[in-house]
Amino acid sequence: MNIRCEVIELNEEEILSVEYVRTEEGLPPVAVVEKPRWTPVKIVIWVVIALVAAAGWAMVAFVRGEEMSASWFVAAAVGSYLIAFRFYAKFIEWKICRPDPKRATPAELNDNGRDFAPTDRRVLFGHHFAAISGAGPLVGPILAAQMGYLPGTLWIVLGVIVAGGVQDYLVLFFSMRRNGRSLGQMTRDELGRTGGIIASLGIILIMVILIAVLGVVIINALAESPWGVFSIAMTIPIAVFMGIYMRYLRPGKVVEVSVIGVVLLILAIVAGGWVHNSPVWSEFFHLDKVTLAWCLMIYGFLAAVLPVWVLLAPRDYLSTFMKIGTIILLAVGILIVNPSVQMPAVTEFAFNSEGPAFAGVLFPFLFITIACGALSGFHALISSGTTPKLIEKESQARLIGYGGMLMESFVAIMALVAAICLDKGLYFAMNAAEPLTGGTTQGASDFINNSLGMSGVETSPEVLQQAANNVGEESIVSRTGGAPTLAMGMAQILHNVFGGPAWMSFWYHFAVMFEALFILTTIDAGTRVARFMLSDALGNFSKKFRDPSWTPGAWLTTAIMVAAWGSILLMGVTDPLGGINTLFPLFGISNQLLAAIALAVVFAIVCKMGLARWAWIPGIPLVWDLVVTMAASWQKIFSSDPLLGYWAQHFAYKDALASGETSLGNTEGVAAMNAVVRNTFVQGTLSIVFALLVAMVVIMAVWKSVEAIRKGSLPTSEEPYTETKIFAPAGLIARKAEREVQAQWDERSPHRRP
After folding, report:
1. Is the separation of the CB atoms in 293 and 573 below 8 Å?
2. Cβ neighbours of residue 729 under 8 Å, at least 6 residues apart?
3. Considering the entire predicted model, what is its pTM?
4. Helices assigned H by DSSP within 1-104
5. By the 8 A CB rule, do 127 and 399 touch?
């Protein structure tokens, strides 16, 4: 191995120090380590970025009134993200991760074309971002908008910088150093057998809830929508074609296949409109919720057992174009239209439990309602599941882990902005539950004008009906769950840029399909990760299961996990109270409890590495997350308010049945009331189990960390060092020196798989 260092003059303003890293004589360099130096131009650029971000925050945090421009949210968020990625994430890389350009990753060492495969960083960034970005960054911020724009904005941006990005990056890096092991197996290796068993059980149970709730959200969006079902279904054969194209037909031609994939995706969306208007095909793709649930389970099984290059990676990569493209389009639309914010900075619902979108005060329920976008335990499963088995170079982990999380946070900010720019009366009419509005424009108007409990908010049946007509819907009253609200907000902004009022209906339905595609990509990756976790757990009893590519084990573990989350999914889509209304709080709590497990394991690993002085980096978000989630769990378990506590609601319905009543609230019939009793028992029990399991894991992590601090360090489960023999650029865009080295490798192996 040798390193050749050169100083290359790129232009008159910047001098770049370049190191060419080789591990074998006769081969081109395996890495290019570039160390750009600060110049006056660079300093000016970063000062400008900081000033723009500061101006945005000053407007968002201190200016009051309803005439504030939504563009300030974009300025505050984007400026903060750029600074965080360049400085804080780089600081974590220097102090904790210390990527080695000479070290081979699990993708290179175990390349089998199925679960382990070195994947182009651009494709992998798309896959990772698509996999982590589900319902959370879309639904949570919109529901939280009932408390005002300021609390949600602060948590989304600051939370991702100090918590979400830190978790995703460190879990990805540590899993990569451990041969791509799952979070559950990492817990067992680092905290001991007992801690591993407890954590694995908790993680698997939480994973079941997370996937099921994501499924409920997508089914609510696609049910009885031929346009949406057809367009989403077509992404599957398109992804398979892209996988075959990149592997066999035109290896390495990422840009080429990307263009083809985007064109086919657009055609699928357009064709969905034709299907919608066809009497024959419209009926064929007009599916109810239960049918869609079974279709989703079949898809989840196939996506988890097929080789990753066939469906999972190309489909997620394809979805990323629509996701990122749509969010950027919305951001540009906000800057052009410059809409005024309608929602106040803080509303009355931040301090009482009477909010129509969800029950609970700002602390702790804002922080579990906005889960993804700021901090999400589900991301730790992706970061220790599929992604570390595909990454080419350790130097790419910061881009994919921390950078991918920043992109998801931006999605959450755009969703929040779309909601707070809506007329307040329209927002609350869409997000108030049907028992409050009666499901009619007159009932919604009466509720908002007379019973909402928020000053300065009013509407009329005519206004609400006209809003529905504008987007081609019969009604928009009580369209809870967040997705229709985001679609309405996007339609009101984008039609002012593209198409005018006549295009509002198009943009509304385009946004609904965008959200469905956004969520479905999390189902497939989540099912595959769940399979890996169960396989790792069973591997402690049978060594064959330790090989994630062992076909019988892969099929068996996938079938078990799909059956588990599928049963909860069916419970959710048939729940008399509405699955999303009862399951989303449990989703938020369990998601954040899972983040506590991930951060606790990361904290212990940092201490065991002898880096206790930097343990505050994962330690601060760990403490905050525990305080929030345990407080929320306590209220959901012990609250006497039936609107808030699972057990209070359980016993209210149980007592009503015992008294011979056949209805309660908006629940009609004994069968429906029994379903509520059953569902709340499951949800209440899981709330207790989750809290206890997480508490035990955290205690074990702290115990192991204290032992490591006393001894200076402890052995970890990190795999032995093996030298790499492949090359890949570190950043999303290859630098000049990297392009030159890539050309040398292409000359040697022009058909090397990406």
Report:
1. yes
2. 32, 121, 735, 738, 739, 742
3. 0.87
4. 40-62, 71-83, 89-92
5. no
